Every structure is written in structure tokens, then in C-alpha cells.
Amino acid sequence: MSVYVDDPAVGPARETSHPDFVATCDAPWYYDDEDERAPFGNPEGRTALRALERWYADNGPAADLAAATLGEWGERLGCPKQEALTVLRIADLGRFSVVTGRDAPTSVEEYDPADDQALLAHALGQFKITGRMQPQIRMIAMAALDRLEALTGPDVEWRDLLEQIRSDLTVH
What we know:
By secondary structure, the protein is mostly helical. Helix content is 58%, strand content 0%.
């Protein structure tokens, strides 16, 4: 099994993505590293993708990303990794905020999407690099999508992008 890694000087590209990712995620914004709404176009998404590329280079394509991810998030949340999966799968934004020690946002302006953008990029990054996505990683990505969609407001373009990502994750 091979891993597909981007040239950092070029950014995300079809030519450096797993063929299964390219076949499923064919929208041009999957490869846009400047659109803040694109999975790898915001600082959290870019950082997550670069970290995943390094992680796979160090651990190999068959390594258990879900276990590593849940361990890391368990530390951040102050809970065992088994509980981290439960927390990261909470789709309700208010409940997620309270469980993770934040105030529940009441408007788009109060919502900081950084964690959810990073989680989404993490899942799509696994698919982009290896051509597969572990079930736990997919569940976390779907919950992150739910939370992002909860406060997108009237931005139809943002909502359409999130719906396309959900559709692509469901197909894979």
C-alpha cells in the first residue's frame, strides 16, 4: 500500500492524491489551499494534512490512525481515548461545546470552527493519503459536519460545500 504526499511548495493536487480520493472527491475546491471553507484551505486543514503526511511517513500506510487520533484528543479533552470517540461523535453543537469545556455558541459569530475543520481535514486527509478512511474517523468527520452545518447561517455556498463533502464521505 502506498501513501500519497503533496509537494509543500505546490499544495494539494490530484497528481499527489490517492486515485480513490480523486475519483470520489472530484470538486476543484478539494485541492484549493486558499479557500477558507475548503478542507485543506484553512490553517487548521493545512496543518492537519501536513501532520498526517508526516505521521504516515513515520508510521506507514497501514498504521492505526484512529487509535492515535483518539489518544491525542483524549489528552486534549482530559479523558481516556474510549471516551474521546464518544465526545467527538456528538453532533449537537451545544452539547459538544459544553462537554469540551466551552460555552455553547448562539450565533455564527460566536462559533469557532477550528476544531471541526481540523477533524474534517483529518478524515479527508486519511482518504487523500491512503485511499481509505477508518470507520471511527468517518464517524468523527460526520459529527464535525453536523456541527459545522448547525451554524452556517444563510451562506448557501458554504452549506452546499458541506453537503458535497457529506455526500462524498457517504459514497466512499
